[in-house]
Amino acid sequence: MVASRGNSSNPARIPALGIRVLALVFLSILLMYLDHRENHLNAVRKTIDVAVYPVRLVVDAPFRFWNWLGEATTSRSDLQREVSRLQTERLNMNLRLQRLTALEAENARLRSLLDARGKVRDEVRVAEIMSVDANPYEHNLVINIGSRDGVYDGQAIVDADGVVGQVIKTGLWTAQAVLISDTDHALPVEVNRNGLRTIAVGTGEIDRLDLPFLPNNADIEVGDLLVTSGLGGAFPEGYPVAVVESVTLIPQEPFADVTATPSSALDQVREVMLIWSAPPVTDEATDE
Amino acid sequence: MSRERASRRLPVIVTLLVGLMLTIMPLPESAEAFRPDWLALVAIFWAMQLPRTWSVGTAWIIGVVLDVSHGTLLGQHALALCVIVFITVRFHLLMRVFPLLQLSATVFALLALYQFLLFWINGVAGVNAPAATYWGPVITGTLIWPFLYMFLSGVRYRAPAGG
Questions:
Q1: I want to staple A132 with a disulfide (CB 3.0 to 4.6 A). Which of A208, A234, B24, B129 is the partner?
Q2: Does residue A201 form part of some domain?
């Protein structure tokens, strides 16, 4: 391209620029193809991710410092108020926990009567959200633990209020997760009241989910709690997802227009929990 | 010799790193779609000023790093950045003598091309994003360009052994 002009005396001429660009463009296309098809390039991604890690730390540091400063300079009266609030909360929780233990025992007994698989308790681990932004095309977040801590792709992430999202890319020390509100995310849920199963799809708005596959005569009401059904395989069952916000019946359409508000404030979470669900071995055992 | 070279490279590397930081810095949800493409702007500037040292190869590497930190398709930003830097290098003499307004218009066109390439690759790969995600950065990037240009020129000519 440049060479075709042939004026080698031109000081502006950069040697072999056109060739280099062409080579790089082909290389990019090859990379994209390999990456898109089979995730062949996870090793490459992880290696470069290690190089990006310090940059993420530096960006995260001022926010972390600000939080720390906020915590360090809380006044005594504020702390006392916080402590008393937490004590009341703990009392309430303990009360509910006492009943839960009894219920769990009962549930296990009934399940053994039915010869069904006993429920395995999920293992959880707390992770902090790093104050860095990632992919501009999706709702996502970066957490501060990665494959070194056993995080894997597709792992479920919840917070104290409900489901947050799932891991899509794991680095060595960090992992990227997609939120349930992302337009490409769909989550199998069921209505807690009656077990009606459906799918909650992200809308791209942080505080709204769509339930596009409910017929007009479906038994669903405003205020119904949606929990994970565990059918997709990625999420363990029984975690709260969202509360139905509006149900609009459209007589001429086959499906009702149902929206829900995520239980967890997706744009305000600071700490999340990663769930290691029951080992897949038990799943195979029941499949027989 | 090599020390002089290193000190000449330092401002470029530092500005690129700062650009990467600005790119992954958290913004409120509403401002997210209007984050300028810092790295594209910085890469255009250096390709214009020092086309022999910082050209398509560098742009490609920056692009791959950007892809990894964004978690986008590996090669997506690399390709887009590589193409706009190529055009910049190809016309760098012309762009150097452009008045600022005309230069801004050129940068607008480059950023639009950059976003179009990203949009096009997203389309092929099946990633759908709202249109504002593509247009926002082009507009804010163009608005911010004159200031960035003046700032980076200052960095370039004030840096030790920079001229």
A1: B24
A2: yes
pLDDT digit string, tens, across residues A29-58: 888 888 887 667 778 888 888 888 888 888
Q: A197 and A158 in contact (C-beta within 8 Å)?
A: no
Domains held by chain A: number: 1
Q: Any idea which residue has 């104050």 for tokens?
A: A131
Measured between CA atoms, the residue of chain B closest to residue A37 is B125
d(CA A229, CA A225): 12
CA distance A25 to chain B (A): 6
pLDDT of residue B5: 65
B106 is written with which tokens? 């050129």
User: Is A150 a domain residue?
Assistant: yes
Option in A24, A32, A136 nearest B32 (CB): A136
Model pLDDT, residue B110:
94
Query: What is the distance, to the nearest Å, from the Cα of residue A25 to the centroid of all Cα atoms in its chain?
Result: 33
**Taking chain B, what is the end-to-end CA distance rounded to the nearest angstrom?**
15
Note whether residue A203 is domain-resident. yes
β-bridge partners, A158: A163, A273
Q: Which residue has the tokens 């910085």?
A: B42
Please work out, in degrees rounded to the nearest 5, the angle formed at the alpha carbon of residue B115 by the alpha carbons of B43 and B121: 110
Going through chain A in order, the beta strands assigned E by DSSP cover 123-130, 140-143, 156-158, 163-170, 175-179, 186-191, 197-202, 209-211, 225-228, 240-248, 257-262, 271-276
| Residues whose CB falls within 8 Å of the CB of residue A186, separated by 6 or more in sequence, listed in order | A199, A200, A201, A202
Measured between beta carbons, the chain A residues lying within 8 angstroms of B65 are: 48, 51-52
Residue A214 is part of which domain span? 122-279
The whole-number pLDDT of residue A4 equals 43
Query: Could you give the dihedral angle defined by the CA atoms of residues B147, B152, B153 and B154, in that order, rounded to the nearest 10 degrees?
Result: 90
Residues in chain B, overall count = 163
* pTM across the whole model: 0.75
The CATH number covering residue A271 comes to 2.40.10.340
Model confidence at B63, pLDDT cuts 50, 70, 90, reads very high
- The closest alpha carbon to A123, from A275, A280, A281, belongs to A275
Burial of A112 (0-12, 13-18, 19+ CB in 10 A): exposed
To which residue do tokens 């470029």 refer?
B12
Mean pLDDT by 10 residues, chain A (288 residues): 43 72 89 79 82 84 85 84 92 89 84 68 81 74 87 87 88 87 88 89 87 86 88 83 89 86 84 75 40
A135 touches chain B (CB under 8 A): yes
CB pairs under 8 A between A and B: 128
Q: A6 lies in a domain?
A: no
